[in-house]
Amino acid sequence: MTAIKHALQRDIFTPNDERLLSIVNVCKAGKKKKNCFLCATVTTERPVQVKVVKVKKSDKGDFYKRQIAWALRDLAVVDAKDAIKENPEFDLHFEKIYKWVASSTAEKNAFISCIWKLNQRYLRKKIDFVNVSSQLLEELPKVTEESVPSGENQSVTGGDEEAVDEYQELNAREEQDIEIMMEGCEYAISNAEAFAEKLSRELQVLDGANIQSIMASEKQVNILMKLLDEALKEVDQIELKLSSYEEMLQSVKEQMDQISESNHLIHLSNTNNVKLLSEIEFLVNHMDLAKGHIKALQEGDLASSRGIEACTNAADALLQCMNVALRPGHDMLLAVKQQQQRFSDLRELFARRLASHLNNVFVQQGHDQSSTLAQHSVELTLPNHHPFHRDLLRYAKLMEWLKSTDYGKYEGLTKNYMDYLSRLYEREIKDFFEVAKIKMTGTTKESKKFGLHGSSGKLTGSTSSLNKLSVQSSGNRRSQSSSLLDMGNMSASDLDVADRTKFDKIFEQVLSELEPLCLAEQDFISKFFKLQQHQSIPGTMAEAEDLDGGTLSRQHNCGTPLPVSSEKDMIRQMMIKIFRCIEPELNNLIALGDKIDSFNSLYMLVKMSHHVWTAQNVDPASFLSTTLGNVLVTVKRNFDKCISNQIRQMEEVKISKKSKVGILPFVAEFEEFAGLAESIFKNAERRGDLDKAYTKLIRGVFVNVEKVANESQKTPRDVVMMENFHHIFATLSRLKISCLEAEKKDAKQKYTDHLQSYVIYSLGQPLEKLNVVWHSMQDEFIRQYKHFEGLIARCYPGSGVTMEFTIQDILDYCSSIAQSH
C-alpha cells in the first residue's frame, strides 16, 4: 500500500499541488469487484482545500487516473455501519449516497480517522459521523504547521507509523556523499554486510562524538532550548492568529461563493429575459394585425375601388399573420391560441362578407346585362361582357385570397358564377341564333315555315316543309331540293347566288361573334378565379382532323363534366358549363343551312375549318377549339353526304326514250359545282376534302355519261359521248383543277375518239342529219350566253358590266361559217 501511495502522490497529486494524507482500497457495494482508491488530500497553497478523490487504474492497467473529486465541505454524513464489530462497509453522503466496501477494516478505520481529523482542523461545518468507534474520534492535540512536515510524503497525523516508514528520495548532495563513501570501501558492493557493519561502527563513533559534543555544549543547548521554547510560543501565537484569519477567510469564502452563485443566477436570468423579449417581439411583429386592417375586414366597403383596395391589403396582412411560421413552443401559449382564434374568426367573417357581396354582384351585373338584350335582338351581334368583366376583375386578388384561405366558399362562388352566367349566356346565345336563322330564311314569316319557335333555335318543321322553301330572285323562284341535279336546273332558271353569299356572310358573322365571346370569357375566368391556361391535351387535334366518317368520341359531355385533375381542366369544365348551348345551337344552324341549300355545306366547311385552325393555334385544348372541332365533324359529314347524294342522283337519272340527249344535266351541274367550289375553296385550309370530292364526282360523271349514252335511243351514242366529254374537257381546262389533270386528259381522249367515230359513221348519212347537229350547237351556245348574262345581272346589278358580244353576233358568226363552207 505504501508503494501505491507513493506512486499516486508522484503521478497524480504532486502535479496538482496536493498532498495525499490517507488512502483506502474500496469497491462499490453489491457490484462486481472493480477496485479503486479513495484518497484524502489537501492543497499545498492557502487557503487549504480538502478533498476526497476517487482514483482507479486505467483500462490497460499500466497507470492510475483521477476519476472524480468531492469537496470535503460537501460531505454531510460518514456512516461506518457498525461501531462494535469489524465491518469493511461504509457510506459517504455527498449530494447522493455512495456505498463502499474497503479491502480491510484497518484501512477503513484509518481513512475515517483521517477524515475526522481533517474535519476538525479545516472545516467550520462539522460532519456527522455515524456508527463510528469513539476511539477513532478521540480529540488529538491541535496540529500545527511545524508538526506537519513540508515534504510531499508527510501526513497531518502526528503519530502515524506510515509517516516514519515513508520512503524519501535522496537529493543530489546525499547521492554524491554516498558514492564517495562507497568508493572508499572496495567491498561496499561485494560484501554489503561488512560495509553495513563498518557504517554502523562509524555511526556509533559519530554518535558518541556527537553526545560528547552536546554534553560539552550543555549551556549553549539550554540557551538553544530556551530560544526554541520562546519560538514555539511565538509560533503558537502566530498559529492562533492564522487560525482566526483562516476562520475569517472561510466565512469570506463562503460569502464569495454565495455571491458567485448569485451572479450566475443573475446572468442566467438576464439571458432568459433577453430570449423572452426576443420571442415576445417576434410574436408582436408577426402576429399583430393593425386596427385599420381589422376594421376593413369587419366593415370595409366592397363596392368602391378604395374600399376594395383597403380590404385587399387587410386580407393579405391577415393571411401573413395566419401563415407565420411559429417557433417551437409558441403554439402552447394561451395568447397565441387566442390570437389565432381571432384571426380565424376574422377570416371567416370576411370570407362570408366577400362571398355574399360577389354573389350580389353576379346577380346585379346579370340584370344590367339582360337590359341590353333588346337592342341586340334585331342585330346579329352578341352583347359585350367587357364592362362586367372589368368590374369583377377588381376583386381578382380577393378571389385569390379566398381560394387559399377558404376553398369551400371559393368553390361555392365558382358554382354560383357558372349557374348564373350559364343562364344569361343561354338567353343571349339562343336569341342570337334565332336572329341568324331569321336572316338566313329571309323573313319572320318564312322562319315560321321551318317551325322556329321561341329562342330554342331547334328545327321543328318537317323535311317536306323545308323542301318547299321558296328562294325568290327577281320575281322568278322555284322549289329547291338538296340535289346537285336540281341545283343544275335552278342554274338553268337563274339560280339565286346572292342567297348563298348571304348565307356565307351570316355564318361567318355567327362564328366571328362567338369566337371573341368565348375567348374573352375564358381569359376572364383564368384571371378572376386564378386558374392556369394553355394545357395541351393529347388527341384533340387528331380527333378534330378525323372527319372522314365514323363516330368521333367527344372531348366532353355537357351533362357530365370530367374529373378535375388540374386548374387547367377546371377552366375547360367551367367553359363547358357556361357555354353548354353553343354546340347544339351551331348544329341546329348547320342543319338549317343544309336544308336551305346543300351547297351551303361548302361555305360552312371552309369557314368552320378556318376558325378551328385559328382556335387551335391559340390553344389546342381550349373550349372554343374543342367545340368548333366537334361542330366541324358535323359540317364535314354534311359535305360528304352532299357529295354522296349527287353521285346517287346521277345514278338515278332516267332518259326518256322519245327525247333527244344533249349535254346531260349532271355534266352542266358539275361545271357549276366546280366553279362555285373553286371560288369558295380558294386558299382554304381544307383543300384536300374538295379534291377528294372532285375525284368521287368526276368518276360518277364519267360512269353515268357512258351509262346514259348506252341507253339513249334517239341520239347516237358517239354524239352523246362526244358532246358531254367535250363539255367536261372544256370545263376542266378552264378551271385548271390540278387534282383532275388525269381526268381532263381522259375526257379529251374520249371526246376525240367519239368525234372521230361519229364523223366516220356520219359520212354515209344524208346531209340533213348534219344540219340537225349544227343547230343544236348553235342553240347550246345561245343558252350558255343567256345563263352568263343572268349571272352578271344578279351579281353586279347596275354596274354596266356586259358581255363583249351579243346574241346577234353569235347568229351572224354561225351563219358566216355555214356560208363559207
UniProtKB/TrEMBL annotation:
<dbReference type="InterPro" id="IPR048628">
    <property type="entry name" value="Sec3_C"/>
</dbReference>
<feature type="domain" description="Exocyst complex component Sec3 PIP2-binding N-terminal">
    <location>
        <begin position="31"/>
        <end position="122"/>
    </location>
</feature>
<dbReference type="GO" id="GO:0006893">
    <property type="term" value="P:Golgi to plasma membrane transport"/>
</dbReference>
<dbReference type="GO" id="GO:0015031">
    <property type="term" value="P:protein transport"/>
</dbReference>
<protein>
    <recommendedName>
        <fullName>Exocyst complex component 1</fullName>
    </recommendedName>
</protein>
<keyword id="KW-0813">Transport</keyword>
<keyword id="KW-0175">Coiled coil</keyword>
<dbReference type="GO" id="GO:0005886">
    <property type="term" value="C:plasma membrane"/>
</dbReference>
<dbReference type="GO" id="GO:0005546">
    <property type="term" value="F:phosphatidylinositol-4,5-bisphosphate binding"/>
</dbReference>
<comment type="subunit">
    <text>The exocyst complex is composed of EXOC1, EXOC2, EXOC3, EXOC4, EXOC5, EXOC6, EXOC7 and EXOC8. Interacts with EEF1A1. Interacts with SLC6A9; interaction increases the transporter capacity of SLC6A9 probably by promoting its insertion into the cell membrane.</text>
</comment>
<dbReference type="GO" id="GO:0090543">
    <property type="term" value="C:Flemming body"/>
</dbReference>
<feature type="coiled-coil region">
    <location>
        <begin position="214"/>
        <end position="262"/>
    </location>
</feature>
<feature type="region of interest" description="Disordered">
    <location>
        <begin position="143"/>
        <end position="162"/>
    </location>
</feature>
<feature type="compositionally biased region" description="Low complexity">
    <location>
        <begin position="452"/>
        <end position="483"/>
    </location>
</feature>
<comment type="function">
    <text>Component of the exocyst complex involved in the docking of exocytic vesicles with fusion sites on the plasma membrane.</text>
</comment>
<keyword id="KW-0597">Phosphoprotein</keyword>
<dbReference type="GO" id="GO:0048471">
    <property type="term" value="C:perinuclear region of cytoplasm"/>
</dbReference>
<dbReference type="Pfam" id="PF15277">
    <property type="entry name" value="Sec3-PIP2_bind"/>
</dbReference>
<keyword id="KW-1003">Cell membrane</keyword>
<feature type="region of interest" description="Disordered">
    <location>
        <begin position="447"/>
        <end position="487"/>
    </location>
</feature>
<keyword id="KW-0472">Membrane</keyword>
<dbReference type="InterPro" id="IPR028258">
    <property type="entry name" value="Sec3-PIP2_bind"/>
</dbReference>
<keyword id="KW-0268">Exocytosis</keyword>
<dbReference type="GO" id="GO:0000145">
    <property type="term" value="C:exocyst"/>
</dbReference>
<comment type="similarity">
    <text>Belongs to the SEC3 family.</text>
</comment>
<dbReference type="GO" id="GO:0006887">
    <property type="term" value="P:exocytosis"/>
</dbReference>
<dbReference type="InterPro" id="IPR019160">
    <property type="entry name" value="Sec3_CC"/>
</dbReference>
<keyword id="KW-0653">Protein transport</keyword>
<dbReference type="Pfam" id="PF20654">
    <property type="entry name" value="Sec3_C-term"/>
</dbReference>
<keyword id="KW-0963">Cytoplasm</keyword>
<dbReference type="Pfam" id="PF09763">
    <property type="entry name" value="Sec3_CC"/>
</dbReference>
